[in-house]
Amino acid sequence: MSQYVVQRLTERFPDQILETHAFRGDDTVVLKRDKLLEVLRFLKEDAGLNFDLPVDLTVVDWWRKKEPRFEVVYHLYSLGKGHRIRLKVPVDEDDAVVPSSRAVWAGFDWYEREAWDLYGIRFEGHPNHTRILLWEGFEGHPLRKDYPITKRQPLTALLDGKQE
Predict the structure, then answer these.
(1) pTM of the complete model beyond 0.85
(2) What are the pLDDT digits (tens) for 101-112?
(3) Does an H or E element contain 7, and which?
(4) Which of 15, 67, 119, 162 is most deeply packed, by most CB within 10 A?
């Protein structure tokens, strides 16, 4: 059933699709970030697709393995139609910004904040671009593969109860 989704996306957004592939029943569409919100809206609002459940938003760091370095990954599901799709949006390390999907699915709010906090991906238009898992004084983004495992963070009054 998901091949139908890939076909619809390919027909509707031919200039935005970089590649498609399927593995063990999971269909993936890799697309440019230019019209990401338009693609997400289409998936949600088109009666034949009806993607009404935003399942997950995460990031893959391909450091030293692939360029561009990052992929922002969206997993979507249609409860009524029973199909699912994975969307990947490649972004460069030097320009790690994608449009915020909150306008389409408010439920992606925390996922976007988590992606910012742990990977440093910015979501343009997000109203609360602050850390969600780490404290504001935390330096860096710890799920990046080049984050030093021995890095020590500065202590904060909030964490140790006193000033340094």
Answers:
(1) yes
(2) 999 999 999 999
(3) helix 2-12
(4) 119
